Here is the input.
Amino acid sequence: TVRIDGTALEQMSRRQIALRLAYVPQATSSGFAYLARDIVAMGRAARMPLLGAPTRHDREMAERALQQLGLAHLSARPVTELSGGERQLVLIARALAQEADGILMDEPTSSLDFGNQVLVLRQIRTLASRDGLAIIMTTHQPDHALTIADHVALVHGASMLGPASPDALITADHLTEVYGVSALVGDLRVGDAERRVCVPIVPLPRGEVGSVDPG
Here is the structure.
């Protein structure tokens, strides 16, 4: 049973749910050249009457959400011209404009390159720590959970481990149990900075493997 503040989801209307919980889908390309500010303004739908149009206040809230994520300069840009990371941040801005108490994010870094993953993760951490938003995020990247999460749960089939702190739950044994591969989990120090990381152990056959760095 899924509950929001003790109330079962099936007992709430779609509008009631939208006023409490916003949703950010996986990164996708848009087939329509909506302006970024129009995409964000769509987050105000739960606060508008049926068939109503965005008011001046709704537009201001959309612009404020873009500014909050450092995207004001993209306001008048079509989303079809934005990078994958920028598009994903626009969807997060849409969730902010919704003014819900929490945000549910479905693999927000999916399909993003290395740099854009960092861009999105940094903003998610900022929204939780600076703005106090409750954020629930699904991910297939345990390293991302180690980087930004306060609490972690590992879902495997019909069972779940946790929730617990990332350090307590994201261990080599647990990752092997869930993913079926060996892993290394440890602390990495670079200069004065230290963070916990996890990497899979990939057994390589003999021979050379080439790689291309698109950057």
In short: The helical segments are 14-20, 36-41, 56-68, 84-97, 114-129, 142-148, 166-169, 172-179.
